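Please, structure for the following, as tokens.
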Amino acid sequence: MSGSVAVNGGPFGDRMSAGLRAAVPDETFVDCSAGASVDGDPDVLLTLLDDPGAVRRLLVPSVCWIHVLGAGVDGFPLDALGERTLTCSRGAAAPAIAEWVLAVMLAFEKQLPHQWIGAPPPHWNRAELGGLSGRTLGLVGVGSIGSAVARRALAFDMEVLGYRRRSEPAPLAGIELVDDLAALLGRSDHIVVAAPATPDTFHLLDAAAFDACKRGAHVVNVSRGSLVDQDALASALDDGRVARASLDTVDPEPLPAGHWLFAHPGVRLSAHVSWSAPSTMDRTIGLFVENLRRFRRGEALAGVVDPVAGY
């Protein structure tokens, strides 16, 4: 089965395969989800990273290009990559994640759902609510997700700071790049973690980083749980340096029952769902299909991952 695509879409396998066959009817797609083995000699692997062991088994010798169904490649067995090309779905979920970030920032400022009422309150027309206009947003990571968040934040008249380790210009007018993480944290009312998970970013927000935060800051993590030292976060929440942590990603995932993050009053926890929106699957399929056409034509691929940098 040379010239085919092995698809390891996990729980999205059926929908993914159906969308791919509709978009590229002249290609052969083989569903390898749920532990199925690879039949034939596919030259392309399209995969989730929820089971690194399964991914390793699917890296048969005929595969020369792997595309990851997600922006992050942490969990990919890079030691088994060899000379193969690895790409990711960078940017596919950025609009959905950016909307989620704005939603949780607004929920923090507008005290939702606390302000909803189910009985007559002591007073009408009284509340001390915040707003996004005039607040400072600190982006830890200014890639596709950070840029999408910035674009929406600027529309709310926020000041937007960005921290990135690479020396590159801001991807969007209105973002002030800051080369010192502590300086960004000290100025930011809302801190959004949107950097890739690599050995260099492990516990990027540690005790020292939380000490540098502006008191009463709101921390939002839509990247990976490994970027935040959760023990240090607990201390920062308990002493008020961080007023709230809205966490869509945590470490480990899924969290075990009884974990302190479930019960802490300063934490708003979601189950890694910020990517979810009606357009995300279509955007993900569209990115891969365009890359597949480039691959068949021998052209350069988009979203190529640097295996040394890890993103």
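Residues 4-92+278-297 form a domain with the Rossmann fold fold (CATH 3.40.50.720). The first helix runs from residue 13 to 23.
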